[in-house]
Amino acid sequence: xxxxxxxxxxxxxxxxxxxxxxxxxxxxxxxxxxxxxxxxxxxxxxxxxxxxxxxxxxxxxxxxxxxxxxxxxxxxxxxxxxxxxxxxxxxxxxxxxxxxxxxxxxxxxxxxxxxxxxxxxxxxxxxxxxxxxxxxxxxxxxxxxxxxxxxxxxxxxxxxxxxxxxxxxxxxxxxxxxxxxxxxxxxxxxxxxxxxxxxxxxxxxxxxxxxxxxxxxxxxxxxxxxxxxxxxxxxxxxxxxxxxxxxxxxxxxxxxxxxxxxxxxxxxxxxxxxxxxxxxxxxxxxxxxxxxxxxxxxxxxxxxxxxxxxxxxxxxxxxxxxxxxxxxxxxxxxxx
Length: 336
Fold this sequence. Notes:
Elements: E1 29-34, E2 39-44, E3 56-61, E4 63-65, E5 69-71, E6 78-86, E7 89-95, E8 105-108, E9 111-118, E10 124-128, H1 152-157, E11 165-168, H2 180-185, E12 188-193, E13 216-220, H3 222-230, E14 233-237, H4 239-252, E15 268-272, E16 287-291, H5 298-307, H6 309-321, E17 332-335
Parallel strand pairs: 1-17, 3-12, 3-14, 4-11, 14-16
Antiparallel strand pairs: 1-2, 5-6, 6-7, 7-10, 8-9, 9-10, 12-13, 13-15, 16-17
């Protein structure tokens, strides 16, 4: 299995990037990949229930996206507020960074903030002259490949219908396909992983094994753990669920096993910083529903670890030929 960054690249026409969601969440196309036979089928997401087997359980991420993007009062600086780390103290990303170096100031809603620290990955720690909620009146943090500002439609559509726990700065996009009607038809449970910048941080090393994932907070309730451990087939909805469950599985069995039986996981909370790339032994996840991901991304590497790099890249080439819609607001694939 390759750890070369260049082996996780592919070319695609930019017009395949979905700039807006479909009118109905569950109208998405769904590419079906069967790992045992390396075959590809073209389905619709609305067919999901027909593919289930007895004992299946969908595990979804119920994190809620924060309206984390705001601009300075003069419009010169864009902020993405990742986390309130203390009263009047926040961790954020800024653009352009050259205007917000150590000691620089700006105003948001007439409240002054100052850069107190520049972290190694470019994030800033800023302090405010008074403690205010910077998420009040903020915009949904659409990814940069969606070439427009967020609007009122994104407030609902860049959020899953089951979002509950506030804390993410990006949506768990595989969950965006679920309508309330589809959700009611399938056996499911929820875990929480607050999606942060670590999920999307680019890999900058030629050898992907040198890349480090930034930690993201997760939690698994006793009820969810019990249902997961009783399931015959665990279907993770999205890469964030995969990293949550596989992190929890390694906490359940700290001594590396060859193969272990139930329980797959234990309930609890912590930080997920697991970087999943080929080769990788999955202990908790049996199937995966996921969107199409950016070239050279850690998300594509995770999917390649699950289904095989060559098979996944062949599926991507076919998706491009068939004009699937790509990325956050795009179509999905189910890997069985």
